[in-house]
Amino acid sequence: MNGLDLYQTLQDEVTALQSFIRFDENHFMRERCSDPHKLEAVIQTGEECLRSLHSDENSDNVQDIVHGIVGNLYRINNQPAQAIELLERCVKRATELNDFKRKAISFIRLAEAFKYADMHDLALKTFDQAEEICHAHSLENILDFVLQHKGKCLAEMGKLAEARASLDEALEIRIRKQDPSLIESTKLAQESLLRV
Fold first, then answer.
1. What is the pLDDT of residues 83-111, one digit of tens each?
2. Is residue 183 scored above 70 in pLDDT?
3. What is the rounded distance in angstroms from the CA atom of residue 80 to the CA atom of residue 196?
4. Nearest alpha-carbon partner for 150 in 184, 192, 107, 187
5. Which H helix or E strand runs over 101?
6. CB 22 within 8 Å of CB 11
């Protein structure tokens, strides 16, 4: 199977995997997978896809996407070192391309990996970088994600007042977006804070 075929397979497997991924309300809404074997299999598909794409010089954009996907999967699988390695590549590549939206998204993902590695100060600094990019480049459609993830990180750090403020700001943006699933996600994060 060539790299692009594997990429399609990876996308299909990630879509199917979503039904096994939940937010752990007892652990600051961290993502967990109820089928670790399935998660491992999807990671292996992603790694195979990256190896296959590596030899195709015309596949840079797809490689960037796959690095992000596999990095996130490693994070969910509680393998933050592998996640950090791949997600740092995403930040580097977005910087090279001068793509601010991609860079902000990559910073969010990298910050989450730092958080899962219990490197909360570095995670917070990385969330701040994503937030700065969003403000500087009017990326409000991404800002709510930064604020929500930053709020959960602050909660893990025991900074509950700051966490509430960040989640409240995320909720305001999501209400303006009128996206019920995002609004519900933020409300769940807020409720989990009340249990801390």
1. 999 999 999 999 999 999 999 999 999 99
2. yes
3. 24
4. 107
5. helix 100-116
6. no
